[in-house]
Amino acid sequence: MRDFKAARAPEPNAKWLKLRVKLLFGLFLMLLGVAFGRAVQLQVFEQEKLRGLAQDQYVRHIEIPARRGDIFDRRGAPLAQSVEVDSIWVDPSMLPDVKAASRALSKALKLDADELHARLSRAKRFAWVKRQAKPAEVAAVKALELPGMGFSKEPKRFYPQRELGAHVVGTVGMDGRGLEGLELAFQDELSGQNSSTSGFRDAKGRKLLVQGALDPLQRQGAAVTLTLDRHLQYVAEKSLSRAVEDAKAVAGMAVVLDPRTGELLAVANHPRFNPNTPESSSRTSMRNRAALDTFEPGSTLKSFVVAAALEEKAITADSLFFCENGAWRVGRHTINDTHSYGWLTPQGILQVSSNICMAKIAQTMGREKFVKGYHAFGFAERTGLSLPGEGRGVIPFPKAEVSLATQSFGQGMTATAVQIAAAYGALANDGVLMRPYLVSKVVDPDGVVLLENRPTELRRVVSTKVARQVVGMLESVVVKGGTATKAAMEDYRVAGKTGTAQKADPVARGYSDKRIASFVGVVPAESPRAVILVVVDEPKTDVYGGSVAAPAFKEIATAAMAHLAVPPSRTVAPEVAVAAVSSAPAAAKPGAKASGAARTALADAVTETPEPGTVRVPDLQGEVGREAVVKLLAAALEPQVLGSGRVVSQTPAAGSLVEKGARVTLELAARQ
Predict the structure, then answer these.
(1) Is the pLDDT of residue 570 over 80?
(2) Of residues 299, 547, 569, 583, which has the active-site annotation?
(3) pTM of the model
């Protein structure tokens, strides 16, 4: 039977159904191809870009600042250290009321509410509230329980000795970079290298370390060790401050130098400042005047003119010069002395500090040799202390006769305090100039020495004979008849020179009525262990170095000799005591015989010599407890303190001879 259904032609709907299936298959195949192509593009061609975008969402590179290296004195006492403290920040977008939060935070942190509100309003997701906050401030902010608050650790510079050595050490800014002193000079060595590590960020945006804590040595700066001695620095600063305040002066400088090595044992400045709170001090009070500032030194430079003249054989120790009875006309100018003097030897000229006779010595030398002598002692060249802005000083060539005269007694030229101390160090070191230095060594955390300074001879300035001759002459300055009797010490021979210089007036282009008073001494004179310079700027009670600066020298020298365990001098040279009388204004002609007063001066200068290993107990009656302890430690004695206040009694008694290291009991009581 015939199948009519099979023989029928396909209906049009069936054709369109097949066509639609084919079209849909093609469409899906095309979409699959597009998706595959996009996947290839993302996985192959844009892989690195997408990986970076993904990491930006949850991975963070955390920058960890390096811990700044420490600064120590010569005995390892820390002068500057770094500690970790909290800094406070906030996400302003999480604060429900920015103005109210600003008021609460400003009250807790003692900040200006309007300024803080303006700062938080400008920020979107991050703003500092207070950097390097105190623990009490952090606790106060946490107690507010404000949303969006954060706390991060930052290194903060801390100066445990406060004002001690602050001008030398310097300060750092809020970002930890050096601003002054050695902090600035050794910025690269002290700062070290910052470290970075990877971490994840959680849903709340908190950073999570994945590598654990880093080795502290990897992010620590180098340590700097100085030549300064903390005890001598303390004594120098205290004595200088007292001298400046007593003289009602504007500023002062003091330098203690070891002439055998060139090491600077103390560099003091006044006014002082606390580097822990630099914002409370002016920029001028932070300046290290002793190393950076130049000034006209005055008569302290006469010693070098005499030394250079002796070295050049322009004069001898017995040469006589007529001092014109106090006034000498040079061209249109008149050179004056403080007193009327007649004929004097070089020793007498130094003893009474005659400007007129010193000018005549300079004339005898000649201009070229005169300037050459100053340069040989290191003037007009930087000492190389590694301090930025160190002064150099100038020595103009004296074309005019009056310029030669004034430069012979330290006017019309400039120098720094360190230069003067180093030049006297050359006289004390038998004529050899040592390079002064302040930094002993710089060592990185691994123990590698990055820098090490050692005693360095620059040159021989004068012969040993001339150096000892001049030092011997300078001993007459501190005995009766000299200009600095207040610098004389009971147990040690002292050689020194006073200076009283007029200050230049840059506006009037001349000299003002302001003065710089100074004294520089070498002790002990027979075997020098320290050169001590004290400079007082613009004293008002008295303008002479022998009255203003010499007492401070004596106080520093007394502590230095005890601290350095220098045995007392046995005798003084007889010719010094004789010169103290024969070179006085009343004595004028050669051949004068020593009088009974000379023998008396000699007898007064001879002191008893304690046995080796023993020291005298200092007189501490009325001293504040802390100061008494410092003096005992400086004298190599062990203090035992009972009570508080000032010393009312001590055992053993003052002046007693005891062994080094012996215990001294101090009874303290408050004043009624």
Answers:
(1) no
(2) 299
(3) 0.73
Averaged pLDDT, 607-624: 69
Catalytic residue at 527? no
Q: What's the domain range around 620? A: 614-669
Strands 71-72 and 223-226: parallel
Rounded CA-CA distance 508/510 in Å is: 5
Question: Do 420 and 533 sit in the same domain of this protein?
Answer: yes
Domain of 167, CATH number, reads 3.90.1310.10
CB 82 within 8 A of CB 71: no
Lowest mean pLDDT among 79-88, 208-217, 332-341, 421-430: 208-217
Relative orientation angle of helices 625-634 and 230-246, to the nearest 10 degrees: 130
Which residue is associated with the tokens 């040279």? 573
H/E stretch holding 441: strand 439-443
Domain tally for the chain? 3
Work out the percent of the chain whose per-residue pLDDT is above 70: 85
Buried b (16+ CB within 10 A) or exposed e, 229-241: bbbbbbbbbbbbb
Residue 597 predicted with pLDDT over 70: no
The pLDDT tens digits for 444-468 are 988 889 999 999 999 999 999 999 9
Rounded CA gap, 551 and 239, in Å? 9
Same domain, 219 and 311: no
Among 12-21, 24-33, 143-152, the minimum mean pLDDT is found in 12-21
- CA dihedral (37, 43, 46, 48) in degrees, to 10, reads 180
Residue 168's nearest CA partner among 440, 526, 477, 449 is 440
How far is residue 155's CA from residue 81's CA, in Å, rounded to a whole number?
10
Torsion angles phi and psi, residue 504, rounded to 5: -70, 145
